[in-house]
Write a structure and sequence with these properties.
Blueprint (H helix, E strand, L loop, with lengths): L1 H12 L7 H17 L4 H17 L8 H16 L15 E6 L6 H14 L4 E6 L6 H12 L2 E3 L10 H14 L4 E6 L7 H14 L3 E7 L5 H12 L4 E5 L8 H10 L3 E5 L7 E3 L2 H8 L5 H11 L2 H11 L8 H14 L2 H7 L7 H5 L4 H11 L3 H5 L6 H11 L3 H22 L13
Helix pairs in contact: 1-2, 1-4, 2-3, 3-4, 4-11, 5-6, 7-8, 9-10, 14-17, 17-19, 19-20
The protein binds guanosine-5'-diphosphate and magnesium ion.
Catalytic activity: GTP + H2O = GDP + phosphate + H(+)
Main location: cytoplasm
GO biological process, one term: SRP-dependent cotranslational protein targeting to membrane
């Protein structure tokens, strides 16, 4: 992956006093290959690498950073710039309702996104109305209705009188309905095709002309790679849009599509969608995506999600443990963390956000959630003393614990081993061993 390549490149740079021309060339070559492997479009790669080389050459060697850190910083800064700099927020209309129109290929995630965005807006105190203007797919309206219901947001659907069979009429009627019923935001879901097609593009353009959107969002599946650029360009020419929404970021895609689209269209990525649940959705943060592309882990997103789920006390306790200020990390903490992780979402997803965890992905995807129940049973069969001081768990204690928890001694052994591994990993992370200083990262 891109991140692995960059990590390797920077490893080679470590320990050198300053950036030589040869260093710069070698680094540029690696970045180029890595970006291509990450499915970034060739013209984008060329521009990007040239910019990084220019800056690496002209920038004074900073006293504060080693050469590797310096290159990481340059690459990071350039990534953030291309991805749009600051997070671009929604523009609301002076006279409500604000009309948001979604466009994109079929399967890109528009309908799901419509409901996610509606829920997100509702939580911010808005009163959105969803409009089902995809009359192409047999159950598109029904799908939006189901999602709208889950989000607790009203859905305007075609029925006799407001344009059965005519998506333009439905969209127009939907906006009128919102104005009449005092909804302050209207989200218009539209139809897509599997490939770009003139008729679909015309329909989207007609809907646009009928409802004069304040924001047109182009929704694109982050997994599609190179093709994303062509699609993004076709929609820019055919419909035009103000911002981009990347979906399916919970998959393997590390951001190649984001970089290509933002660079080629000059439109900012505004939202990121990372899962099938309605709450798997957030503003897009260019700095965090840059970190993710560099495999610094999406630490900030993780921290934010964790904050939502953990209660403040537990979070404070966990933070204290992690930084080694709260005494030793015990088996009780280990169990608590396992349970928190389950609350946060699938293990693989969480771990994917941590720095350097990409390598464990496969292992984690095979992780059986029932495993957590087994871990819980084992730890609960231990005495408080054993949990606080796992080093004392010898052979006879292990036998007793396995009997008490209805597991094999080998299960107990495995758990204890795993605990010590986790503790070791956390100590080194807390000491900052694995995480070099990054702009925009805490600490
Ligand atoms: P549309 O055709 O553009 O309206 O796309 P849909 O909203 O119907 O989504 C197509 C498929 O992708 C559905 O199965 C969704 O559940 C799924 N999907 C949408 N967004 C995401 C996401 O962020 N992550 C994942 N894993 N799946 C998604
Ligand atoms: Mg749809």
């Amino acid at each position: 992956t891109l991140s692995d390549r960059l990590a390797d490149t920077f490893k080679n740079l470590r320990g050198k006093g300053r950036l030589s021309e040869a260093d710069i060339d070698a680094t540029a070559r690696e970045i180029r290959i890595a970006l291509l492997e990450a499915d970034v479009a060739l013209p984008v790669v060329k521009v990007f690498v040239a910019a990084v080389k220019d800056r690496a050459r002209s920038e004074e060697v900073s006293a504060a950073l080693n050469p590797a850190q310096q290159v990481v910083k340059i690459v990071n800064d350039e990534l953030v710039t291309i991805l749009g700099g600051e997070t671009r927020r929604l523009r609301f209309a002076k006279n409500p309702p604000t009309v948001i129109m979604l466009a994109g290929l079929q399967g890109s995630g528009k309908t799901t996104l419509a409901a996610k965005l509606a829920l997100w807006l509702k939580e911010q105190g808005n009163s959105p109305l969803l409009v089902a203007a995809d009359l192409q797919r047999p159950n598109a309206v029904g799908q939006l209705q189901v999602n709208g219901e889950r989000a607790g947001v009203k859905v305007f659907a075609p029925e006799p009188g407001n344009g059965v069979g005519d998506p333009v009429a439905v969209a127009r009627a939907g906006v009128e309905e919102a104005r009449r019923t005092l909804h302050d935001v209207v989200i218009v879901d539209t139809a897509g095709r599997l490939g770009v097609d003139a008729e679909m593009m015309q329909q989207a353009a007609d809907i646009r002309d009928a409802v004069s959107p304040d924001e047109i969002l182009f929704v694109v599946d982050a997994m599609v790679g190179q093709d994303a650029v062509n699609t993004a360009q076709a929609f820019l020419d055919g419909v035009g849009y103000d911002g981009v929404v990347l979906t399916k970021l919970d998959g393997d895609a590390r951001g190649g599509a984001a970089l290509s689209i933002a660079s080629i269209t000059g439109r900012p990525v505004m939202f990121a969608s990372a899962g099938e649940k309605l709450t798997d959705f957030d503003l897009f943060h260019p700095d965090r995506m840059a970190s993710r592309i560099l495999d610094m882990g999406d630490m900030l997103t993780l921290i934010e999600q964790a904050k939502k789920t953990f209660d403040a006390d537990q979070a404070a306790k966990a933070a204290a443990k992690l930084t080694g200020q709260g005494g030793d990390f015990t088996l009780d903490d280990f169990l608590e963390q396992m349970q928190q992780i389950r609350k946060l979402g699938s293990l693989s997803k969480i771990m994917g956000m941590l720095p350097g965890m990409g390598q464990f992905r496969e292992q984690l995807e095979n992780f059986d959630e029932r495993e957590i129940d087994r871990i819980q049973a084992i730890i609960q069969s231990m005495t408080p003393g054993e949990r606080a001081n796992p080093k004392m768990i010898d052979g006879s204690r292990r036998a007793r614990i396995s009997k008490g928890s209805g597991t094999q001694v080998s299960d107990v052994n495995q758990l204890v081993d795993r605990f010590f591994e986790a503790r070791k990993m956390m100590m080194s992370m807390a000491k900052g061993g694995g995480i070099p200083g990054m702009p925009g990262m805490p600490g």
